[in-house]
Amino acid sequence: MEKINIRKERLSLIEYLNVLVKIQALYDVISDAAFERFKVRRQQTAKIGQNG
Questions:
Q1: How far apart are CA 18 and CA 42, in angstroms?
Q2: How far apart are CA 28 and CA 21, in angstroms?
Q3: Is the pLDDT of residue 52 over 70?
Q4: pLDDT digits (tens, 9 = 90+) for 5-51
Q5: How far apart are CA 2 and CA 7, in angstroms?
Q6: How far is the first Cα of the chain from the last one, in angstroms, to the nearest whole number?
Q7: Spatial separation of the C-alpha atoms in residues 20 and 25, rounded to whole Å
Q8: Which 8-state DSSP code applies to residue 52?
Q9: What local confidence, expressed as pLDDT, does residue 50 receive?
């Protein structure tokens, strides 16, 4: 019985870690998109500054 409980605890830990990995992946996607948008805005601002 104790082995079953240990396996359940391990499974819930694995499930928890899987959720954390998914959250990290989503964070990476969001941060990459934000950084790309920042670079575009920076280029646009630089072009405006050169024309001014």
A1: 36
A2: 10
A3: no
A4: 777 778 888 899 999 999 999 999 999 999 999 999 999 998 887 77
A5: 9
A6: 76
A7: 9
A8: -
A9: 78
At residue 51, what is the residue type? N
Q: Which domain holds residue 27?
A: 1-52
Tracing tokens 């998109």 back to the chain, one arrives at 33
Please calculate the CA angle 30-19-38 and round it to the nearest 5 degrees: 10
Which pLDDT value is given to residue 9? 78
**What is the Cα–Cα distance from 41 to 24, expressed in whole angstroms?**
25
For the whole model, what pTM was predicted? 0.62
Q: What is the DSSP letter of 1?
A: -
The two tokens of residue 14 are 């694995």
Total domains in the chain come to: 1
Q: Is the dihedral of CA 20, 26, 29, 30 positive or negative?
A: negative
